Amino acid sequence: MSTSRSTNIVFENVSKFYGEVLGVNSVNLSLPPGVTSLVGPNGSGKTTLMNLVTGLVRPTQGRVSVLGLTPDEPEEFFRHVGYCTQFDSFPKGVTGFEFINQTLRLRGLTSSEAARLASEAIERVNLSEAAHRRVAGYSKGMRQRIRLAQSIAHHPTVLVLDEPLNGLDPMARAESIALFEALGKQGLHVVISSHVLHEVDKISDQVVLMSYGYVVAEGKIHGVRTEVKEHPMQILVRCATPGLLASRLFSQDHVVEAKLNNDGKGVLIRTKDADLFYQLLNKIIVEENFAVDTVAPNDDDVNSVYQYLVGTGSGGTV
Amino acid sequence: MSSTAITGMGKSGKEIPWQLWASQLAAVLRIELKKTLWMRRSIWIYLLAFAPAVMFGIHALTSPMGSHCSIEEDTRVLAYTFQIFYLRVGIFFGCLGMFTWLFRGEIMEKSLHYYFLSPMRRELLVAGKFLAGFITASLVFGTSVLLCFTFAYGHFGAAGHAFVFNGPGLGHLTSYLLVTVLACLGFGAIFLALSLIFKNPILPGIVVLLWESFHSVAPSLLQKLSVSFYLKQLCPVTIPPDGLMALFTVITEPVSPWLAIPGLLCLSVAILAFACFRIRRTEISYLAD
């Protein structure tokens, strides 16, 4: 591999139309290694974006490259890319092991090497006991996990996962999230789509917010939140004397609201300038020997940002 | 898991990875042969293929030692059966069912993307699937033709033996088997390509059937775009052009076998090249299908 090759997943002015129906429009992105979450409601273009990355669909306009490679060089491209699609379908009559083994043999691997990697991947998703049972008899969660195993079996450096948590029980969800996080920390590109925001929020290094085929925001979630100027930042301060703090803060121009918590042990501040607020809070703490238990942003998460930008969704899903 | 991608037999760089391609082709062939040979939905193809063999078998049983027929008569019946049934119906519809399902089946079952996400040229996928279909169809129809031939002459005893081994019989058999294999090749290529263009290849298949049946009334140049044009030239027994059947059997543009075989091969390769061109542009959108 050339040393000058890009290390990112790059979209250059990419549009995709299905006839007259818009898939995605004018997408310009450069996704670095780590966990990237694609967030948006059904029909927002997440799957199209993933299919574009993996060459299952071709852009109507623009160019997509992964680590400087395109699907036109499949031997090289798909050695690096693994894709767990949303399609809950399998070749007929195969067992979990055969399914993964077959796809590994298509990579030109020897029988023993393919068998070793297949077993390793199956173990990784905790399906060893069911490996030699037919996939047709698997539960939805097991099918999801065997597809995940298939996408990671060849040790990809770019892993694309379309709604990978669908159908998983809470234990399997937690294990999968931990796996994605670990892969991201190993320096892999892990691109995940989800409409369950609080799940991806926990593990994402960066997010891409999508709506109606457009990328409405992208970057680290805190950075994106800071850019949403029209919605004052909410910060929750837990302290013993919230009333006193509220009266000190309320005289500031950038503070638009200070609301006491029902339990009487905290105050929710809405400020137009978070940096100024933190400076002021530090000053109060130092000068007035003010005791503060915790300070935490209250709407610095994917769900809030998505609602501010797109104006839909509630309860952690979009 | 290590972050190093598994390389397989492929080599980086611009070198042509023949070894990788060969092992990938073998892998596709293995998967596809299992499907095409043992597919439950292929039963009708087997029944279609072996129906004439059953008829010839019954004929052999009811006419021991050629008591109610002659070698000449059976030779003519075999020629009619081959040219009218096998070429026009059996192999044609058998290949239609088998080759169109190679890709359409994957699309219906939503499993084609597993191939598309492999580090494999899509052209190799076309080649592997085509080879699997070709081997299966040739095996099924070749066996059926062989059985028909055996039943047609076996019940004549010594006379039949003499016809086959000391007369023209063995030559006829070789020609029938060659035409069978070439028919599977030509029709297979057409139907595989059609399945990559049309969501429902049945209607285009009917158009092909009409073209293959009535191409003899077309101008000389156009006739060369028909698979039957080449196959007819290679059949060992000429059927007299009588009545309506003449439409199917008459040869208006005689061509030597030495041109007919390469001609058919060229036509098949051209169609497969088109299929490769199509599959490079094929996108996965199962919902639309």
Description of the molecule:
The complex is a heterodimer of chains A (318) and B (289). Chain A folds into two domains: 9-225, Rossmann fold, CATH 3.40.50.300; 232-298, 2-Layer Sandwich (Alpha-Beta Plaits), CATH 3.30.70.920. Chain A has eleven helices and 13 strands. Chain A has helices at residues 46-54, 74-80, 96-105, 111-124, 140-152, 170-185, 197-203, 221-227, 242-250, 274-288, 302-310; strands spanning 9-18, 21-31, 34-39, 61-66, 81-84, 158-162, 189-194, 206-211, 214-219, 233-239, 255-260, 266-271, 292-297. In chain A, helix 3 (96-105) runs parallel beside helix 5. The radius of gyration of chain A is 23 Å and the shape is elongated. Mean pLDDT of chain A is 86; it is low at 313-318. Chain B has 289 residues and is mainly alpha-helical. Chain B has one domain. Helix content of chain B is 71%, strand content 0%. Chain B has helices at 18-37, 43-62, 71-108, 112-116, 122-154, 158-165, 169-197, 202-214, 220-223, 227-234, 246-249, 257-280. In chain B, helix 5 runs antiparallel to helix 12 (257-280). The two termini of chain B are 37 Å apart. Chains A and B meet through helix 2, strand 5, helix 3 and helix 4 of A and helix 1 and helix 4 of B.
